[in-house]
């Protein structure tokens, strides 16, 4: 049975970040910064409440009549209790013979074009551990992008305004960055396991390293760009954030309305139509929060029974990173034009170059992961290099002007030069019509 290390990492990051947020908010209160205190508490407690709700929803504690567990979740102690339960199950597994086991069928990765199907016995303890791992993975994603990401942006913004980085704030920002990167990593692993649920997937350490580097560069540069832009153009910060957020929030709903599919009713039997709508809105809310800071490996598809798009779409990935790079470059340009005296001793061109190179490094590690380290790369219909090449060809085809307009333009340019030739040819034709003997002799 696999050691539940991911559960322990999720709990450590959750507890450490929450404790650091409470300590830092106390420091803001002592310094008289009420606004920073309340914003820090908001970005710390809101994801805590959402994490408790997600754990209760995944484990179906409401329908199982577990009042003590629900009370502990109300006291924000749910992750701690779940972790204790996980390790109790892990250390007591195998001591008592289980009355029955379930048999699962998984296919191995194809070798030489052949994929073998294997059967595996899964006991009750292992099934419970699998459920806990899945629940903590989803909780880590919620904590990362609805709590840690805005928290890191806020603390870095405060550092820029106050021109000071304290020890407590720096530790808190490091914890927030680690939480975001870990949440993005869990999001990638969840996407792989959901898309290739029929296969026995094993992720190698090289793949974890590529994902970690990819997400670290991507998230760090994105947060830095947003903070720099918001420090000089506060009025335009809210429109930029709202356009990004609501664009990704409504995108799955627009695709769902265009498909004219029936409303999904198979999410949870105990939920009413209103409850299902709330769950779907929370799902798209999380999807928008992820795409605000990085590429979400999981694509929401509301007309699918699993609510996930399982196809590998290289075009959407390419368009996202191209638009995000253009947006980051534009925001950095605005910062460079309107920068204030705060950045008097900062080499602005070098900083802009470093941030753009950092984002390119994120794209480079992403390409390495999908091309060489993806555990299911043998199942791709086309590699990422082929997908990017076809995407660039398509974009070049769109940008290229139509041939018909080019030909008409050339004809219009050449027509004044050839008027004399046209008149001379018409005269020769008329003279031939007027001399019938020449035409008879030519026929003979």
TrEMBL record:
It is found in: Membrane. The chain crosses the membrane at residues 35-58, 167-185, 235-256, 277-298, 318-338, 350-372. Residues 410-444 are annotated as: Disordered. The keyword Transmembrane helix applies. It is a multi-pass membrane protein. Its main location: membrane. This is XK-related protein. It comes from Strix occidentalis caurina (northern spotted owl).
């Amino acid at each position: 049975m696999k050691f539940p290390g991911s559960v322990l990492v999720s709990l450590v990051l959750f507890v450490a970040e929450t404790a650091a947020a409470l300590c830092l908010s106390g420091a803001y209160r002592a310094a008289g910064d009420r606004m920073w205190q309340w914003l820090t508490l908001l970005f710390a407690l809101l994801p805590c409440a959402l994490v408790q709700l997600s754990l209760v929803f995944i484990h179906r504690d409401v329908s199982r009549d577990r009042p003590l567990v629900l009370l502990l979740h109300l006291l924000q102690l749910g992750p701690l209790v779940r972790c204790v339960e996980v390790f109790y199950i892990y250390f007591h597994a195998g001591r008592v013979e289980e009355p029955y086991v379930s048999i699962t069928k998984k296919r191995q990765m194809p070798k030489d074009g052949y994929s073998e199907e294997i059967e595996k016995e899964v006991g009750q303890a292992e099934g419970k551990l699998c459920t806990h791992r899945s629940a903590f993975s989803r909780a880590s994603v919620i904590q990362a992008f609805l709590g840690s990401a805005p928290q890191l942006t806020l603390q870095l913004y405060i550092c820029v305004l106050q021109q000071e980085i304290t020890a407590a704030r720096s530790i808190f920002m490091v914890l927030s960055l680690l939480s975001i990167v870990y949440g993005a990593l869990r999001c990638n692993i969840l996407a792989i396991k959901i898309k290739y649920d029929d296969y026995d997937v094993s992720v190698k350490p090289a793949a974890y390293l590529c994902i970690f580097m990819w997400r670290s560069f991507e998230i760090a540069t994105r947060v830095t760009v947003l903070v720099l832009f918001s420090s000089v153009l506060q009025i335009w910060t809210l429109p930029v954030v709202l356009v990004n957020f609501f664009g990704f929030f409504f995108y799955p709903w627009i695709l769902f309305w265009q498909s004219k599919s029936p409303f999904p009713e198979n999410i949870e039997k105990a939920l009413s139509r209103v409850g299902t709508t709330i769950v779907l809105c929370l799902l798209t809310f999380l999807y928008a929060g992820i795409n605000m800071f990085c590429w979400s490996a999981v694509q929401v598809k509301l007309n699918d029974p699993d609510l996930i798009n399982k196809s590998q779409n290289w075009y959407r990935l390419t368009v996202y990173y191209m638009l995000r790079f253009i947006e980051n470059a534009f925001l950095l340009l605005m910062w460079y034009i309107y920068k204030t005296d705060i950045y008097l001793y900062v080499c602005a061109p070098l900083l802009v170059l470093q941030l753009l190179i950092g984002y390119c490094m994120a794209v480079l590690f992403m390409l390495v992961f999908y091309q060489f380290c993806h555990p299911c790369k043998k199942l791709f219909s086309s590699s990422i290099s082929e997908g990017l090449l076809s995407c660039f060809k398509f974009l070049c085809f769109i940008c290229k002007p139509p041939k018909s307009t080019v030909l008409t333009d050339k004809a219009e340019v050449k027509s004044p030069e050839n008027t004399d030739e046209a008149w001379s040819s018409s005269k020769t034709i008329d003279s031939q019509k007027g001399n019938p003997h020449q035409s008879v002799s030519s026929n003979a």
